[in-house]
Amino acid sequence: MFKPVRAKTVKEYFDMLPEERRTPMKFLHSFIQKSAPKLKPNFIYNMPGYGTFAYKNYKKEVLNWPVISLASQKNYISIYVCAV
Known about the structure:
2 helices, four-stranded antiparallel β-sheet, 36% strand, alpha+beta
């Protein structure tokens, strides 16, 4: 579903980023944690996520989906916010 990465934790994910991406990603990580402290950080679907909720996909499978997640893409940084 998402591009595989070698990281298995949030820390490993940030450590593998190039410096020019690590600084803004760590800023966003801190900002999310300060803005929404109840959303605990986790590593889910190959990216740092914050909080989870039960989501039923098109196959009728119930998944733990992150409320907010970050991803370092090829040309930009993505912030995914699921406000369902």
